[in-house]
Amino acid sequence: MRPIYETASDRYNEGEVLAALTNQWRCEGKKLPVSYHLDYALCVGRTIKALVEIKCRSNELRRYPTVFISLNKIINGKQLADEIGVRFLLVVKMVDGIFYTGVNENYTIDFSGRTRNTRDDADVEPVAHFDVRLFKRLKHDT
Q1: Are 107 and 74 in contact (CB under 8 A)?
Q2: How far is Cα 113 from Cα 122, in angstroms, rounded to an integer?
Q3: Per-residue pLDDT tens listing for the chain (142 residues)
Q4: Phi, psi values for residue 41, rounded to 5°
């Protein structure tokens, strides 16, 4: 089994993003178990309205032409969202704001990932690249 590399700082940043999302969209974020391969379900009451994967990066959104994420997360998120009948959102916190896009077919796939400062063999894998022009800025980000 692969180690979990998430730090206290990662969880803090993720919490800031979740607070901004839930405040703007008037919903509650429910942390999903690790087995779901996604971060949160956004709910109103007990009804799931969307699924969310949150990524925090230390650069501006337009620093690179794409934002990439593990293809495995995309596959799991799309399957779960389809089963529930809700949207699957990729949300990224960058130094210049919080941005989001719906996960659909508008991505390209290659074999890359974390190629600098690789932690283990699983850091380089099939990934989905989302054009930064697809992202919308959250109105009330942190």
Answers
A1: yes
A2: 9
A3: 435 556 888 889 899 999 999 999 999 999 999 999 999 999 999 999 999 999 999 999 999 999 999 999 999 999 999 999 999 999 999 999 999 999 987 899 998 855 555 555 656 789 999 999 999 999 866 5
A4: -105, 130
Do residues 29 and 50 lie in contact, with contact meaning Cβ atoms separated by under 8 Å?
A: no
For CA atoms 93, 104, 133, 110, give the dihedral sign: positive
- Encoded tokens for 88: 């699957």
Which residue has tokens 């659909």? 104
Which domains, and CATH codes, for the chain?
8-137 (3.40.1350.10)
Beta strands in 71-132 (DSSP E): 87-94, 97-102, 108-113, 124-131
Q: What is the pTM of this model?
A: 0.86
Both tokens of 30, joined, read: 């429910």
Cα separation, 16 vs 118, in Å, equals 26
Spatial separation of the C-alpha atoms in residues 90 and 127, rounded to whole Å: 14
What are the backbone dihedrals phi and psi of residue 102, each rounded to the nearest 5 degrees, phi first? -75, 140
Q: How many residues does the chain have?
A: 142
